[in-house]
Design brief:
Strands 1-2 form a two-stranded antiparallel sheet. The chain contains 13 helices and 2 strands. The protein has a domain of 168 residues: MetI-like (MetI-like fold). Helix 2 packs across helix 13, helix 5 crosses helix 7 and helix 10 runs antiparallel to helix 13. It is mainly α.
């Protein structure tokens, strides 16, 4: 007998079966594509027109000397001459830097501490807590210009609310006195900023896991120890947001001081110098643009590390 030889079977593929390429389940119609293009294109165009083009234009004009009269052919390009003049010969620059630093330090300490304290109190579910939250947040809804008008009435030497409450024999000129007007305006700015900080910390406190507080309580920690050693460190992302928002708020402060006395007599800020140089009596668009670029650089020094941390955290998760 002859043995019947069987054909060897083909080895089964070891990997997963190849995917079949198919058509996309859905496709945008012509109308949908038009709507999507308009929804993306119009905001992008507006953003480029009112943000990036003026920004890049300011950077370019910061290397020039131009009074805004005539065409672009009248622009005199002087390199870094404006920056050298600002740092060495411009008498209002360094006082403005000092005032911005005082503004920043004050907002980092006073409104931040007050907002944190108010948030801790409201987190205890007090009666009428929603009413308190609304009342404390209400100043944040107001613009800084309107806050300036309100506090002008409070600080008015003759008949102002503050002097009437204090009952001084000689009324204090809170805004006209260059030795105290900066701190008087800072109180007004803090009044507005505190409600925002309170809301941020209140949201952070609501997100803290109650189990952490219970574990600390079981370990014998007091209320203050639980807050400073457990709750507050857990709110690190909120603390970073508060710091970044406060720095930006201190750098962009303009409306309130310009409403009060156009940023003069002790209220000089970098933002005021930009306005005074560009639209002042003697228009110096080049120097004003250079101050604006310096202010932008300082702002980016805070914003870019924050964004880097946020996006790197998202990539890790």
């Amino acid at each position: 007998m002859t043995a019947v030889q069987e054909k060897p079977k083909a080895a089964a593929p070891s990997g997963p079966p190849p995917r079949r390429r198919g058509k996309r389940a859905t496709a945008l119609a012509g109308t949908d594509k038009l709507v999507l293009a308009l929804m993306l294109g119009i905001p992008t165009f507006v953003h480029l027109l009112f943000v990036w083009i003026p920004t890049l234009g300011s950077v370019a004009l910061s290397f020039s000397r131009w009074n805004g009269i005539g065409g672009f052919e009248d622009i005199e390009w002087i390199g870094v001459g404006n920056y050298v003049e600002i740092f060495t010969e411009y008498p209002r620059f360094w006082p403005a830097v000092q005032h911005n630093l005082i503004w920043l330090a004050f907002l980092l300490v006073v409104p931040t501490a007050a907002g944190l304290l108010l948030a801790v109190l409201l987190d205890r579910e007090l009666k009428f807590s929603r009413v308190y939250q609304s009342a404390l947040y209400m100043p944040m809804v107001l613009s800084l210009a309107l806050v300036g008008f309100i506090w002008q009435l409070i600080y008015t030497p003759d008949g102002g609310l503050l002097n009437s409450v204090l009952g001084l024999d000689e009324p204090v000129d809170w805004i006209g006195d260059s030795d105290i007007n900066l701190y008087a305006v800072l109180v007004a700015a803090a009044w507005r900023h505190t409600g925002y900080i309170m809301l941020l910390y209140l949201a952070g406190l609501k997100s803290v896991d109650p189990a952490l507080k219970e574990a600390a309580s079981l370990d014998g920690a007091s209320a203050s120890q639980t807050f400073f050693r457990v709750t507050f460190p857990v709110m690190k992302p909120v603390n970073i947001v508060v710091a970044v928002v406060t720095v930006i708020e201190a750098l962009r402060a303009f409306d309130i001081v310009y409403v009060i006395n156009k940023g003069r007599n002790g209220l000089e800020l970098l933002s005021v110098l930009v306005t005074d140089n560009i639209i002042g009596e003697a228009s110096r668009i080049g120097r004003g643009s250079a101050v604006a670029v310096i202010l932008l650089t300082i702002s980016l020094g805070v914003i870019i590390p924050y964004l880097y941390q946020v996006f790197s955290k998202e990539n890790r998760t």
